[in-house]
Amino acid sequence: MAPVCVLVGVMGAGKTSTGLLVASGLGVGFRDTDSDVEALAGKPIPEIFVDDGEEHFRTLERAAVAEALASHDGVLALGGGAILAEENRAALAGHRVIYLSVELTDAVRRVGLGAGRPLLAINPRATLKHLLDQRRPLYTEVAGQTVVTDGRTPEQVAEEILAGLADDRVGRPAGPPAG
Ligand SMILES: Nc1ncnc2c1ncn2[C@@H]1O[C@H](COP(=O)(O)OP(=O)(O)OP(=O)(O)O)[C@@H](O)[C@H]1O
Ligand SMILES: O=C(O)C1=C[C@@H](O)[C@@H](O)[C@H](O)C1
Ligand SMILES: [Mg+2]
User: Fold this and answer.
1) Ligand 2 test: best mutation among 34, 58, 59, most atoms within 8 Å of CB?
2) Is 14 flagged in the annotation as binding?
3) Which residues bind substrate (predicted)?
4) Is 58 annotated as a binding-site member?
């Protein structure tokens, strides 16, 4: 069992909002490792960061990513920083990974003051710039496809993803071509 697709990207890329739309369009389930981590810890992400620290959050996240890749057969969204762990990047090999890209202007607009996102608690704009610069190469490394989300609605982004998935099914016939 493997996810239909795995969405990666920085905070505000729209992994959760777009992922829910793609899953609903396909009639499959949606899973988000951020929610899985919260379930594992029994508390919201900001509280994990405050009580236990980022390192503990990343440990729970690695467990959540491995579990979800092995057991979820719908659309999967990864936490924005999941690709930092070499273990997670290696685990993504062979999966259909889609990078939802967003540049600074739109990302900042979308996350606002970073409510619920502990890494953005101080100076969200500068932090997001740093995270984008640091992570862009990692998102690109793990992804087989990049979908640009700047200036587009989650519905438009979901439509492009759904079209790509449908095309791919057409491009992979079960048997040899007729004739
Ligand atoms: N393409 C888009 N256009 C405009 N707004 C968007 C778009 N995608 C998401 N948003 C809005 O941006 C905010 C952040 O989106 P979302 O929570 O889906 O991002 P995320 O990638 O899951 O972030 P995180 O990594 O923090 O979980 C939400 O308020 C959402 O409605
Ligand atoms: O970019 C990150 O490192 C994070 C993104 C969110 O999805 C959460 O996983 C958490 O707030 C950390
Ligand atoms: Mg999300």
Assistant:
1) 34
2) yes
3) 34, 58, 80, 135
4) yes
Give ipTM to 2 decimals. 0.97
Residue ranges of the chain with pLDDT lower than 70?
Answer: 169-179
Please tell me the distance between residue 179's alpha carbon and the centre of ligand 3 in angstroms: 47
Supply the pTM of this predicted model.
0.94
DSSP 101: E
The answer to whether 59 and 49 are in contact (CB under 8 A) is no
The CA 11 to ligand 2 mean position distance, Å, reads 6
What is the fold, at CATH topology level, of the domain defined by 5-168? Answer: Rossmann fold (3.40.50)
CA-CA distance, 67 to 16, in Å (whole number)? 18
Helix-strand-coil percent breakdown of the chain, rounded to 5?
60, 10, 30
Residues in the chain: 179
Q: CA 110, CA 12: separation in Å to the nearest integer?
A: 6
* Element of type H or E holding 77: strand 75-77
- For residue 7, what are the β-bridge partners? 77, 98
- Tokens coding 175: 């048997």
